[in-house]
Design goal:
With 389 residues, the chain is α+β, with helices and mostly antiparallel strands. Helix content is 31%, strand content 19%. The chain has 13 helices and 14 strands. α6 runs antiparallel to α8. InterPro entries: Kinase-like_dom_sf (IPR011009), NAF/FISL_domain (IPR018451), NAF_dom (IPR004041), Prot_kinase_dom (IPR000719), Protein_kinase_ATP_BS (IPR017441), Ser/Thr_kinase_AS (IPR008271).
Length: 389
C-alpha cells in the first residue's frame, strides 16, 4: 500500500516536486488548479530576503519580468506572498538548458547555432528596447521549450535603465566571469546593451566551438585574456561566422557591433524570420509591493492536504490471511548518474588533475589506456572514464 499523499496548495496552485534550488530560492513544479496549466514557482524565504537586504533586488527582478512579454523570454505570471514566503509564478519550460544540449552533444552545426542565436538576439533586442539589461547571459540561463525554441531566464541580476548614474552608465560588476565584457571588469562604468552583446558573442562561440573562447583557472589571467579579446576561432568555422564573432568580441565597446548592424550581417540574416507576437499585460507593481506588507489581507493561503492512501489489486490480495505476494516484487532498482565535462587539455593533464583532487581525500586511482578506471574508498567505488578524442 502506498503511503498517504501530502498535497501542498498555494493559492490556486498545487505544488509538486523541487526542480531547482539556489542560495535564496527553491523552484517547484506546480499546476494551476483552475486551468490545469503547469508552472514553475520560485519560492523565497521572506525572513532571509529581508535579513540580506534583498527586498529591492526581488522587486527589481519582478519589475523587469513584468516589462517583458516576448516569446523568447520566460514569462512571469504573478507574485504572491504568505507570512513567511514569497512566491514568483513563472512559465514552466520543459526542454531543459541550452547548456545541457552542448554538454551532451557537443558543438552545433552552424544552421542550428544560428537559429538559437537569432532567437537570443531577438529577446535581447526586445529587452533593451524597454530599458532592461540582463547582465548574466550564458547558456545555463537559456532554456528550451517543448518545440526547441529558446527562452531567456533568470533576471535576478538584471538592471533597469533607471538605475544608471549621471554619466549614463551602469556601475555594478556582476555576471559569470567567462561571459563578462571587458568594460564590466573595470570600475569606470559600462553600457548595459553593449555588455549584453559581448555575452551573446561568447555564447555564439560556445555553440559553434563547443568550448569557451576565454578560460583559465587563474582569474587574473582570465581577465587579461578577456580585456585583450585574446581568443582563436576553431578552423571548422565558416568565414562569415568568424567575422561576426570577431566583431561582437571587440574589446572596445565604442566600436563593437550593435544589434541594428548585426541584423544586416550576411551570416546572421540567413534564414532569419523576425518574431510576430502580441504584447499583453502591464507593469503594475501593486502585487509585488503587497508581498512585503505584513497585512493579512495581502497574504496568499497555504494549505497542506493529506489524500487517502491508494491500493492496487495486488496490495488488496496481499491483505488476505496467508497470502503474501511481496516476494514477487522484491527487485532491487539500479540508478545511473552521469555528468560530462569537456576540456581542451591533454589526457595526461586531465588525469593528473583528477589524481590531485582525490588523493588527499584518501582515494586510490587506477589507470589503464588513458582512462581512470576506478577510484576506491573503503567500500565505495566511483568509476570515472576519460575518453580521448
Amino acid at each position: 500500500m502506498n503511503p498517504p499523499k501530502v498535497k501542498r496548495r498555494v493559492g490556486k496552485y498545487e505544488v509538486g516536486r523541487t526542480i531547482g534550488e539556489g542560495t535564496f530560492a527553491k523552484v517547484k513544479f506546480a499546476r494551476n488548479s483552475e486551468t490545469g496549466e503547469p508552472v514553475a514557482i520560485k519560492i523565497l524565504d521572506k525572513e532571509k530576503v529581508l535579513k540580506h537586504k534583498m527586498a529591492e533586488q526581488i522587486k527589481r527582478e519582478v519589475a523587469t519580468m513584468k516589462l517583458i512579454k516576448h516569446p523568447n523570454v520566460v514569462r512571469l505570471y504573478e507574485v504572491m506572498g504568505s507570512k513567511t514566503k514569497i512566491f514568483i509564478v513563472l512559465e514552466f519550460v520543459t526542454g531543459g538548458e541550452l547548456f545541457d544540449k552542448i554538454v551532451n552533444h557537443g558543438r552545433m552545426r552552424e544552421d542550428e547555432a544560428r537559429r538559437y542565436f537569432q532567437q537570443l538576439i531577438n529577446a535581447v533586442d526586445y529587452c533593451h528596447s524597454r530599458g532592461v539589461y540582463h547582465r548574466d547571459l550564458k547558456p545555463e540561463n537559456l532554456l528550451l521549450d517543448a518545440y526547441g525554441n529558446l527562452k531567456v531566464s533568470d533576471f535576478g541580476l538584471s538592471a533597469l535603465s533607471q538605475q544608471v548614474r549621471d554619466d549614463g552608465l551602469l556601475h555594478t560588476t556582476c555576471g559569470t566571469p567567462n561571459y563578462v565584457a571587458p568594460e564590466v571588469l573595470n570600475d569606470r562604468g559600462y553600457d548595459g546593451a553593449t555588455a549584453d552583446l559581448w555575452s551573446c558573442g561568447v555564447i555564439l562561440f560556445v555553440l559553434l566551438a563547443g568550448y569557451l573562447p576565454f578560460d583559465d583557472s587563474n582569474l587574473m589571467i582570465l581577465y587579461k585574456k578577456i580585456s585583450a579579446a585574446e581568443f582563436t576561432c576553431p578552423p571548422w568555422l565558416s568565414f562569415g561566422a568568424m567575422k561576426l564573432i570577431t566583431r561582437i568580441l571587440d574589446p572596445n565597446p565604442m566600436t563593437r557591433i550593435t544589434i541594428p548592424e548585426m541584423l544586416e550581417d550576411e551570416w546572421f540574416k540567413k534564414g532569419y524570420k523576425p518574431p510576430v507576437f502580441e504584447e499583453k499585460g502591464d507593469a503594475n507593481l501593486d502585487d509585488v509591493e503587497a508581498v512585503f506588507k505584513d497585512s493579512e489581507e495581502h497574504h496568499v493561503t497555504e494549505k497542506t492536504e493529506e489524500q487517502p492512501a491508494a491500493m492496487n489489486a495486488f496490495e488488496l490480495i496481499s491483505m488476505s490471511k496467508g497470502l503474501n505476494l511481496g516476494n514477487l516484487f522484491d527487485i532491487e532498482q539500479g540508478f545511473k548518474r552521469e555528468t560530462r565535462f569537456t576540456s581542451k587539455c591533454p589526457a595526461n593533464e586531465i588525469i593528473h588533475k583528477i589524481e590531485e583532487a582525490v588523493k588527499p581525500l584518501g582515494f586510490d586511482v587506477h589507470k589503464k589506456n588513458y582512462k581512470v578506471n576506478k577510484i576506491n574508498l573503503s567500500t565505495y567505488v566511483i568509476v570515472i572514464r576519460v575518453p580521448v578524442f
